[in-house]
Design a protein that fits this description.
The complex is a heterodimer of chains A (256) and B (280). Chain A contains eight helices and nine strands. With 256 residues, chain A is an alpha/beta fold. Chain A has one domain: Rossmann fold (3-Layer(aba) Sandwich). Chain A has a six-stranded mixed β-sheet, with helices on both faces. Chain B has one domain. Chain B has 13 helices and no strands. The two termini of chain B are 28 Å apart. Classes of the chains: A alpha/beta (256), B mainly alpha (280).
Chain lengths: 256, 280
């Protein structure tokens, strides 16, 4: 296993969002729009981020809400496109975002897994071959053949986790979704993440559970206001982050 | 072109989305797929009573005449409605996987094509029962359907993106489609438009020129039901431009407009497809 290959490379990444305060607009805003065309209020979520993640390490992204952690993760996953800058990902990506909403509730677990796998870019044959692995990882058993609308949030998490791991991704991205899982399954999750790391995958997690970052990450990256404030030993980074958070009393902005 | 190639490469995902759309549409309904037949049939029965029996429409075989164009119209209407929400509806998928975004509208069109094909089976049965003459002009039907698809896809891409910005699209679309239904020769035919003295000739020409659906629907109906009177009637082309006959003049305009709409749609889509998850 080439465990020190650089699997994720981010260079000078900038990401601009347009903040819209009222969601989708109505006709009266059309006229305002015509005078002041969209985009009217830019917001820089990331302002020049550099990050390398090697195979064989678990990296934890920490930082207050709205610092840009999730945006960074989504750009690595290919969901958002960078405004400027460069992102190179070597290998397949497995992602765990927004488990609650990611499934079609009318379809069964297996049908959802099939659709998800195909939308991840795998062939039908590959997805069918991965079904046993999904069943094993998710520990859902017979529930896989039941519509997802009957699932608890923990079960949706298990299904999502099973799908994310089923295709043996070289890059595994996890956005704080752990809360849905029970204690025992959380331990399973971290065990599986370590297995992936040991097999040479790069794992990036976003977490506000600092104890988990301490326990399971090889390296922590502190993201602050769209920039990387520091990177290093989880213990040190968490300490720096906490003392900074205690020092500033600015309220966190909305998470993005 | 590259877009088509990419959709083709993702055909398995596309097929799965189409299957899901069809599966989910009639989930929890006792009659299920039968609704694909029942819905248009019921409407045709009611419209036949209203227009043929009560309002004395002069069209012979009114219900069949209506059915022949009502199927593609329903396809158009339903696809546009589904297409306007195909992005919103699949937001969770867009926010999870970086698949080519074009497969969402493509899947919407294809699942509605399946529904139209089901209705088409009924139409074919009726045509066989009526012993309608099969003439080579029947081969024009796929051509008209192809232009309809081009026009529809272009509109869908525009509407789907605009829906992300303006909630109004939902209501506007409903209103526009209802008007459009009556502004297209569906419950009446082109001959009646030509015969009316209330509209001046320039108005009649505009009526056809401004609505790309009109030549398509007129052509489809004529090719299916009145192949012996081909080409179908149309107003004289403005400025005597109708070298190949009036019908083909208006058809060409319709095809050109459709291609322009598709080009605009693809441009709009390209510009926003990777911003869609940010807009939700």
């Amino acid at each position: 296993m080439a465990t020190d290959a650089c699997l994720v490379e981010v260079h000078n990444l900038h990401k601009q969002f347009v903040v819209r305060h009222e969601g989708r607009s109505s006709l009266k805003h059309v006229f305002v729009r015509l005078l002041r065309p969209y985009p009217h209020e830019p917001f820089w979520a990331l302002k020049g981020v550099d990050l390398q993640v090697r195979g064989g390490e678990v990296v934890g992204l920490i930082g207050v809400n709205g610092s840009g952690k999730s945006t960074l993760l989504r750009i690595i996953a290919g969901i958002y496109r960078p405004t400027t800058g460069e992102v190179v990902v070597r290998g397949h990506v497995g992602a765990l975002f927004e488990l609650e909403s990611g499934f079609n509730v009318e379809l069964t677990g297996v049908e959802n897994a099939l659709l998800s796998g195909l939308l991840m870019g795998y062939t039908r044959r590959e997805v069918l071959a991965a079904l046993p692995a999904i069943e094993q990882t998710s520990e859902l058993g017979g529930f896989l053949d039941v519509p997802v609308k009957t699932y608890s949030s923990g079960m949706k998490f298990r299904l999502g986790f099973g799908i994310a791991l089923a295709f043996k991704p070289e890059v595994l991205l996890v956005d704080e979704v752990m809360a849905a899982a029970d204690e025992a399954f959380q331990r399973t999750v971290y065990r599986r993440l370590r297995e992936f790391r040991d097999a040479g995958s790069a794992v990036v997690i976003v977490s506000h559970e600092l104890d988990a970052v301490r326990a399971h990450c090889d390296r922590a990256v502190w993201v602050h206001q769209g920039l990387i404030r520091g990177t290093g030993e989880p213990e040190q980074m968490i300490e720096a982050y906490l003392s900074d958070a205690a020092g500033s009393d600015g309220p966190p902005t909305s998470d993005e | 072109m590259t877009e088509i190639l990419r959709v083709w490469q993702w055909r398995e995902a596309l097929a799965a989305l189409v299957a899901r759309n069809i599966q989910v549409r009639y989930k929890n309904s006792a009659l299920g797929f039968l609704w694909s037949f029942l819905n248009p049939l019921m409407q045709i029965v009611v419209m036949t009573i209203a227009f043929r029996y009560i309002m004395n429409s002069p069209i012979e075989n009114f219900s069949v005449h209506l059915f022949a164009v009502y199927l593609p119209w329903l396809f158009f209407q339903q696809s546009l409605g589904d297409g306007s929400i195909c992005v919103l509806e699949n937001a969770p998928l867009l926010r999870k996987y970086p698949f080519p975004r074009m497969i969402l509208p493509a899947a919407t069109i294809m699942s509605n094509l399946v529904h139209m094909a089901l209705g088409g089976l009924v139409l074919i049965a009726i045509l066989l029962y009526l012993r309608v003459a099969l003439r080579p002009v029947l081969l024009y039907v796929p051509l008209f359907l192809a232009v309809l698809l081009v026009f529809l896809l272009g509109l869908m891409l525009i509407v789907a993106v605009m829906r992300m910005f303006y909630e109004d699209i939902r209501f506007a679309l409903e209103a526009v489609l209802r008007l459009w239904f009556f502004l297209t020769p569906l419950v009446y035919n082109m001959q009646q438009v030509l015969d009316t003295e209330r509209l001046s000739l320039p108005l009649k020409q505009l009526y056809v020129l401004l609505n790309p659906l009109t030549p398509l629907m007129v052509g489809m109906r004529a090719a299916l039901l009145e192949p012996d009177q081909w080409p179908p009637p149309m107003p004289p082309a403005p400025g005597g431009l109708s070298a190949g006959g009036e019908f083909w003049f208006y058809f060409t305009v319709s095809a050109i407009v459709s291609l322009i709409v598709l080009a605009v749609g693809v441009r709009v889509w390209r510009k926003y497809e990777w911003k869609l998850p940010e807009l939700m």
